[in-house]
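Open question from group meeting: does this chain pack into something compact, or does most of it stay loose? Before anyone orders reagents, we agreed to write out a predicted structure and look at it together. Recording both the input and the output here so the notebook holds the full record.
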Amino acid sequence: MSIRTDDALVLGAPGVYYLPEVPQPRAAVERLDVAAFVGIAPRGPAYERVDDVADVAASGREVSHRRSVPVPVESWDEYAELFGEFEGPGLLPDAVAAYFAQGGRRAYIVRVVAAAQDPPGELRPPPGCAAFSVLPGLGLRARNEGCWGNRLLITWSYVTRVLTATVTGRAGATEIVLGPGSAVVPGSVLRLTAARTTGTSGTTGTTTATAAIVVVRLVERRGHAQDAGTDLVAICEPGRPAGPGTTVELVEGRLEVTDPDPRRRRRELFTGLGLSAAHPRYVADVLHRDARLVAPLEGRFGDILPPTSLDLARGTPIPGLVGEDRSDQVTAGDLLDDEDGVRRLADADEVASLVVPDLFALPPLAEPDSSPPAGDPRFRPCQAPPAPSQEPAGGKPRLGGLMLDVSGTDGLAALADRQQRLVDLAEELRVVALLDVPPGIDDATVLRWRSRFSSSFAAAYHPWLRVLGHTATRRLKQIPPSAVAAGIIARCELRQGLARGPANEPAAQVVGLATAVPPGAHDRFHRLGVNVFAMTPDGVRLTGARTLSAEPALDRLTTRRLLLEIERVVLRQLGWTVFEPAGETLRSGVRRHLEQLLGELSDAGAFAGGTPADSWFVTVGEPDATGPGRLVVEVGVAPAAPLEFVLVRVALDATGAGEPQLLLGGAVLPPASFAGAGGGLAQPAPGTGTAVCRA
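C-alpha cells returned:
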C-alpha cells in the first residue's frame, strides 16, 4: 500500500458551527497624497508578462504581455533602482525627483514605451531587449527594453548536496529511498554516482565512477510491511546507476546577474532553482515572478538537463537581439492609448493626482551664461541669448515623436488637444490631472490656452521652474511646475490633512522661474484658475490652489479633493452594504459610518459650517429602490471655500460598479430633518431623495 504525499487534507465531520458576529468596519479617511507619473525612462517595467488568465479572457484577444505597468515607489532611490536616473531623454526623472524633494512619500510610475510592430508573444520577445544564451534550454533576456541590457553579466552554476539515500533498480523505474530531511520534490534533479572496482584477486583493483543525471518523476510515501513506519521514495527513469555504494546528490541551480552601471551597480542572486518545469521553484517561474534584471527568453527555455560534470556557464549575447532605446518612437498615442499608458492607472486605486511630464517635448533650451568675463571688471550691455537649436547635437531629437513647437498656433492647439484628452482620462479615472502651461508663451497666449479647458479634474501651473542640473557642470535646468505642485499637495495633506489648501507653500530646491510673471498678469491668472509660482523674498512659492472648472462651486482644488474623498470612501469601504439585509438597520449603519467620517473631516476644518447641520447631511435610500442590488447614498457637504452645498450622490451596485453624480447650486439643500425649524425647505421630491427650494 502506498500513500501519496499530496493527499487532500481530511476535515472533520460536517456540522453546524457557531461563528461570532464580525463587527462592521469603520469608514476611514482614504489617502489622497499619492501621485502618479507617466513618462519616458531609460529602463523599468514594460511589456510585463500577463499571468492573470481572467485578465486575458476579458480582453477579448490573446495577450501575453502588458506594455505599461504602474509601479509604486516610496523614495527617489527606489525609483532610480528601477527606472534609472537622468541618463534618459525625458523629464520623468526630474519630475519624480522634484516630487520627493517637496515631501511626497509615495508615487506610482508608469513607463511608456513605443508599441511593437509585432506584438510579443509566447515565442516572440518584446522589442529592444538584449538576449543571452546561457545553457541548452535556458535563454535569458533583459527584463525590459533599453541599451542598459547590453552590459549585463550572467553567471550560471550548480550547487549540490549529498543525500542519505539507497538506490535500487526495478523494472520500469529507478527507486531512491530517501533518508530523513531529504528535500526532494517532483521535478528535482539528482546526480547518481556509482563507484565500481575492477581487478583480479590478490591485485590492486581500479576504481571507476559512473555518473548519471536523473529527474524525479514522483515522490510517494510507502508503509513498512513489518511495522508502522514509512519510507519516502523518489521514482526516476529506469536504467540508472543503482545498488549499494551509489552516491545521491541533489542538484540545484544558482544564477547571478550583474548590471555594472557606473552610476548605480545592480546585482541579483537566485539560489535553490529547479531545473525542471515540474519543480515548484522552476527557474523560469522564479525569474518571471521575482527578477528585475532578466526574464526567460520567449521560446528558448525548457527543462535543463545538466552534464554530469556540472560545469559553470556564462551568458553570451545572441546576435540580432540587442538592447536598444526606442524613446524616439514614442508618440502621444502611446501615452494616451485606450489600453496602455495613462489608462493603466485604473490598476492603482491609491492615485489622486496625475502628472505626465513627457506629454510633449521641446527643443533643448540653452541656458545663457550670465557670468561676466574673467578678469574684466567693466559692466557691459546684456546681449540677447541665441535662439535655441531645434535639434540637439548629434542629429535627430531623441523624443521626436512627442516634439511640438508651442510657439506657433498649430503646435499650441495640438498640445491643448493632448491635454484635453488627458483631462478626459482623469475624469474617467477619478483623479486630478496637473497640467503645465506651455513654456515660452506670452500672457495673452496663456489666457487663450486657458480658455480651452473647463473641468474640476484639472489644475494648471505656471511658469516652468529652474533647478540645479544633475550633471557635473550643475547648470540650471527647467522642469515642469506640475511635478513640484504634486509634491506640495502631498506635503500639505500629510502635514495638515485634506482641508489644507496647497497654496502659499515654498517650493523646495527650486532656485528660479523660467519666466517672471508680472503682478497684473498674476492677478488675472489667479481669477481664471491658473496657479502661479512666484518669486518671494524667501524663495519660490506656489500661490494658488484652483482647478480649471467653470463652475464657481468647484474652482477650489480642496473642494474637488474633498468630493473625491467622499466618493472613494462610499465606493470602496461601503460596497459590502449591497449584500446586507435591507432595512432601517442597514440604512442607519451606513449613515453612522459616514457621519463618523464627516465628523473627522469637520474637525480638520474641511467644512464651512460651525455645526454638523450647517456642514453636511447624509441620506440613504431604500435598498433595491432603484433596482435589485443597488443602494443610493447621498452626501451633501458645504466645503470650507464654497458657501453653497455640493451634493455627491453615489449608487452602489452588487456588481461592484458605482455611479458618482454631482449636483451643484442653491437648489441643493439638506432635507428638512437636518435644517431645523423654520428652515424653509421642502420635503424631498417623490423618488428623488433630494430636497429642493420652495417656489
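Observations to bring back to the group:
The chain has 13 helices and 33 strands.
The first helix runs from residue 53 to 59.
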